[in-house]
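your task:
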Amino acid sequence: MRDTSNVDENTVTIQMKDIVKKFGNFVANDHINLTVHKGEVHAILGENGAGKSTLMNVLYGIYQPTSGSIAIDGKEVVINGPEQAIDLGIGMVHQHFMLIQPFTVTENIILGAEPRKGLVVDKESARKKIVELSDRYGLMVDPDAKIEDISVGMQQRVEILKVLYRGAKHLILDEPTSSLTPQEISELMQIIKNLTADGKSIILITHKLKEITECADYCTIIRQGKYIDTVKVDEVDENKLAAMMVGRNVQFKVEKKDNKPGKVVLDVKDLHAKDYRGVDILNGLNLQVREGEILGIAGVDGNGQSELVEILTGLMKAESGSITVDGNDIFNKTPREAMDAGVSCIPEDRQKHGLVMDFTVDENMILQNFARPEFSKHGILKKDSIHKFTSELIEKFDIRPRGCNNRLARQLSGGNQQKVIIAREVTNDKDLLIAMNPTRGLDVGAIEFVHKYLVEQRNKGRAVLLVSFELDEIMSLSDRINVIFEGQITGEVNGKDADEKELGYMMAGGKTDEN
């Protein structure tokens, strides 16, 4: 529970009244109200595509409201663009970062707001200010590091420093934990406390109920573009918030009957690999996944999980070892050869490896299967057949907005982009489904839905390899759990017997009596 002593309920910093935002005939925001106070964390909760990011893009000046009014610090304003929002003390940290990889932290932060000494950019004074801000709010960022060399969590801190450097008093954080490890999430929560203790207001766009109950003071719920309610967080529980968000009771526990695993589908032996820096990342890794089971890989990010999945799907080469699927060798094969051998994958990075962002939803749904006779003839796509196929998946997997077949993938919300990938991969009916953080960026209703489909794949006799940084997800879905540490499987526990503390100890390199 958050200490709310720094919240000044008499000082309203942001007030949005009856905000309507339409895109053609589509109403993304339908008369939404939002009131934020000084020193407050105000969560905006809603399903994927509910209109949360649209509302904040209106506040940040990226979109203009169709109707409604905005007041900042008691004065009604019209925000015509992000520059004006910044001048009003509003800063936004987007879900997908906007950083230039080869530039340093300092160069990224001052870009577009460079201090000058005569005709020369005064990097030293900028660096000094960045260090002061970093120390003040506990961000602990190296101003001289290159973006390409730092973690996702550290990149997010750079984005926060960017808005603080420009004088932000009101910070909008859009799905800030969707790409973070549990440790990075804990550190972000502390940073948020440091910011609000200094009187800054935080708007947290999220659908993670645990984070809302941990760090938010108030929560505004939006459902299908409509304002539902604003509640005081310490007066509600997660079940109540979930029901308000999706309009029904949500089943948090995964229903999974006992299943007897069959033959080995995936067999990985003595796998060695180096990361992009040439450093050993997999050090003799062994694992097996059988048909009719979900094998969960539990581990702290950076212990070789990403590289393992990239090697299994043909995106990266290993140094040595062996990998078979149904007895067929797929060691260092191409992505197409891995796919043809029976591997399907929900990738870690949906935008880089899961979708072609400038293709339509129709086109993305048949990416691997465009040559099938039902989708093409003599190299010409059968658009009507593809459209019908995709429409059925849009309906079945609750991809929003309905009828988005001809929308570009980049025009969907992050959660709905993820649903497109999941719909495609689970209907590919391969013997092995690899799911890497499959519910990252999804709301509780969608998570329930995805979990159901993963269990369904397992019940159909398929082998499922689940790699997730969400320990709750690993524990509730897995039949067996392998713990990965420093590129090796260092322990195994039965899913039924999994204990969070024991797993956490093993993930940190601790040994139990059994291993």
Q: What stands out?
A: The first strand starts at residue 8 and ends at 23. The longest helix spans residues 182-197.
